[in-house]
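Continuing the batch. This is chain 6 of the set; chains 1 through 5 are on the previous pages. Same settings as before, nothing changed between runs. Recording input and output for traceability.
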Amino acid sequence: MGLVRPCFGWLLVFGCTSCFDLNPSKTTIHAGYYVRDDFSQPYSTLYLETEDGSSVERCPNVKRVGYERGYIFIQAERGNYWFAVQEDKGWNSLDPAAALLLNGPLNFTEFQQAMLRLGVGEIAYQFP
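Output for chain 6:
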């Protein structure tokens, strides 16, 4: 009888803590790029994991993110963006150089024209 109560208590504690998402979902896009649900916001953000293991923000409030032929394509709350992966030097998102990395925001027509100019056909979005 003494073992039943501690086990039940453990299950009750575990059951209550499992209601909280302590590990937000993470979707790998390509070579260090991933999308993760934000802890304190109702949206997801694109990040780059740098060589030292830190994560730097690339674009908040993303709806769709895909990698194709050396480029990351983003559909976000504020519009559409793209950038060449080879141009990303792992800058912190507060660095002015990081702000120059993203091309956009573009409307849908401009986004389609950019994909044509880059020689990219259909994008296989990895997120969502």
